[in-house]
Amino acid sequence: MIHGIGGSSAERELSEIRPWTDCAPAPDEQEYAARMERARQLTRDCGADAVLVGAGESLRYFTGIPWGETERLVAMLLPVTGTPILFAPNFERGTLEADLAIEADLRLWEEDENPAAMIAAALGDIGADTLAIDPAMSFLFVDRIARAAPSCSVCAAGPVIDGCRMFKSSVELALLQQAKSMTLEVHRRAAKILRPGIRASEVARFLDAAHRAIGAPGGNSFVIVQFGRATAYPHGLPGDGELAEDDLVLIDTGCRVHGYHSDITRTYAFGTPTDEQRTIWELEREAQYAAFEAVEPGKPCEAVDAAARAVIEKAGLGPDYQLPGLPHRTGHGIGLAIHEPAYLVRGDTTPLAPGMCFSNEPMIVVPDRFGVRLEDHFHVTETGAQWFTEPSPSIDRPFG
Q: What is the pLDDT of residues 230-266, one digit of tens each?
């Protein structure tokens, strides 16, 4: 018997959810100042005079502006000394000032003006000879800026931006913890609403409503609900699956808290698992723990992936990405982006260091039949790793 699966309804579970009370504080002025100072130092270290950050997660990280990139250029120019300069459409002034969390020189452009030329002029104002550009900025903008400022050499700002965002502060860790704790509670309640014939779309709608009820204003940041054979495909199959007795259930979902992501997966049986499903589930859990135990500051990220694969290959699966086995990396960095550097995968030799945060999800796939993914997250400490959420204890008690 699987404990905590089925027996309730969406209405009942939603009525019992209360808004999260242990809320982590948003980044404050001191937090943003520390990020700016770190970015300035890393910009100097890479030999540039300024860094240009485009709209997206990195702009939010440095300024609080939660805008995505569009065809209209929005960016921050951060000199190694002096005030940050923000470029945005003039008609967005009110929204910009409401979102902006730092002091900045606003240089706003009208629809018939060329913002690339304005950036070139600003580079001249600060005497910049070398500009580090956000690697996430579209080539369209990079090319226009390079053409507008031909005397200024450009380089990729990956070492600057990743060198800041990969290492989470205590403020960021608290926000990540809240998001993940909220999502795990949503998972637990979603399992209770399962019944024969329920559609994946109905479960997805419940997850969204539950995330909103518990305190995530945007609801699901993403959602994957898979039943039966669809669990053999890491991101599912087209269509709206219908749950049947003894199906495996795989739910992968998350939310955002002040932009910081959760991303948790649980796999369990709706009914009685087969002996093979139980064996694969327990092997998945062993691989997940092996990855966690392999975390040690100074070791390369790829060592964590290797530890999970060693468990799976010892059981006769794989090797490498062959199926049955593990078809993808063991984990990814997470923060303001759901997938961000560094990565727990062969070839990523980035040294593990305190403050780095990762998913741990060495999924095992039995082709065209079923798959098991258990995904929790951890952050690197001075001595090893610390879970944000405790892993699922057993296939019979997936939520303890």
A: 999 999 999 999 999 999 999 999 999 999 999 999 9
CB 177 within 8 Å of CB 388:
yes
Residue 1, pLDDT > 90, answer no
- Pull the structure tokens for residue 142: 């990079």
| Residue in the block written with tokens 């998350």 | 254
If we measure between CA atoms, which residue out of 43, 40, 46, 65 comes closest to residue 54?
A: 65
CATH of the domain at 70: 3.40.350.10
* Domain limits for position 197: 167-387
The pLDDT assigned to 2 comes to: 75
Q: Are 200 and 135 within one domain?
A: no
Report if residue 40 sits inside a domain. Answer: no
Q: E strands along 129-255, which residues?
A: 130-133, 153-156, 222-227, 247-254
Quick one: DSSP state of residue 69?
P
8-state DSSP, 210: H
Query: Is the domain of 286 the same as that of 151?
Result: no
User: How far, in whole angstroms, is CA 378 from its chain's centroid?
Assistant: 12
Q: Kindly list the distances between the CA atom of residue 166 and the CA atoms of 55, 177, 186, 355, in Å, as whole numbers in the listed order.
A: 18, 16, 27, 7
- Same domain assignment for residues 71 and 188: no
Q: Which residues contact 170 (CB under 8 A, 6 or more apart)?
A: none
pLDDT one-digit tens code per residue, 272-327: 999 999 999 999 999 999 999 999 999 999 999 999 999 999 999 999 999 999 99
Sign of CA dihedral 221, 227, 233, 237: negative
Confidence of residue 122 (pLDDT cuts 50, 70, 90): very high
**Total domains in the fold of the chain:** 2
* Nearest-angstrom CA–CA distance, 356 and 334: 9
Residue (of 395, 390, 338) closest to 372 by Cα position: 395
Phi, psi of 226 (to 5 degrees): -130, 140
